[in-house]
């Protein structure tokens, strides 16, 4: 099996969904800083657009404190067919990742460098 690696511009998440109309989208956010990165990008609009075009089942799994999880849930709550789950965490890992799994076939990994001063 071959592995194709494509570079995707973080500011244009539409490229993630160009190849197919996803039936399922699983998003793992391993830190609150990863969520803040998504919040400051086009990801929300892209996800909302996908959910309105078809009946994708979207699941978000996060790893953060309860207050942070409430912020994540609130931010994405207007998107159709979305569910949330949290793994409580009170300390952050030094590295921040986002994993997006589309149709249980395509996986995207993003390593986020988040600087609070910017």
Q: What do these coordinates show?
A:
By secondary structure, the chain is of the alpha/beta class. The chain has one domain. Helices cover about 25% and strands about 30% of the residues. Strands 3-2-1-4-5 form a five-stranded mixed beta sheet, with helices on one face. Helix 3 (about 65-75) links the parallel strand 2 and strand 3 (about 80-90). It is globular, with a radius of gyration of 14 Å. The termini are far apart.
Summarize the structure.
The chain has helices at 32-39, 43-53, 66-76; strands at 24-29, 57-64, 82-88, 96-102, 106-112. It has 118 residues and is an alpha/beta fold.
Average predicted confidence as pLDDT: 80
Major pleated sheet: 5 strands, mixed
Strand content: 25-35%
In spatial order, strands of the major sheet run 3-2-1-4-5
Low-confidence runs of at least 5 consecutive residues = 1-5
Overall shape: it is globular
Distance between the termini: 41 Å
How many domains in all? 1
What string gives the helices and strands in order? EHHEHEEE
Structural class category: alpha/beta
Number of helices: 3
Helix content: 25-40%
Gyration radius (Cα, Å) is 14 Å
DSSP strand count: 5
